[in-house]
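Sorry, explain these tokens?

***
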Amino acid sequence: MVTRGFTRQQLPTELARRVPPGQHLVDDFPVLAIGAAPNIATAGWTFELKLGSRPLKKWSWAEFNALPQTTLTRDIHCVTSWSKLDTRWEGVLVDDILAAAGVEAPTAFVLANSYDDYSTNVPAVDLLGGKALVALRYDGEPLHRDHGGPARLLVPHLYFWKSAKWLKGLTFTQRDEAGFWELRGYHLYGDPWREQRFSDD
């Protein structure tokens, strides 16, 4: 018997090179979360940039949507073994968030914080240079609540648990502080091409 996820699909070469080891392609968009999706009204939504406990800048929904908007089309890879190719997102690059706050990355480490008290750590270098986006729309539509709406982080080159749903802010930290899943045995970095799923990978 063959179990999907343990063997690689037979894909055309041009697709196979885009699918990391241990992954399989999906056409749908699986919904995974640690609990029920919070219902966040945009009227009360805010996004805060912090250095430790010190606020650097805070935006309302209208103010955040007035920042420069970017569209990214990227492949995404979930630690549960599915991959989805050519997903299209729109939102604000982390680079443009820092520029709007008038700051450069003050430390090498970041915690992404969510409205459901979820958090995940990401090196600052992995959020800059056009690599990461605070996504507000998916495939041309406002981001659905089940997929992290009204806003989620998108860090497509790392496993998808790093792309925190229901995002409320980014906090620069002095050290690499583990987030929700990292404290429970997931890898601190999470590179799908190196299969960094768990702490000892």
Summary: The chain has one domain: 42-194. The helical segments are 13-16, 61-65, 94-101. Residues 1-8 have pLDDT under 50 and may be disordered.
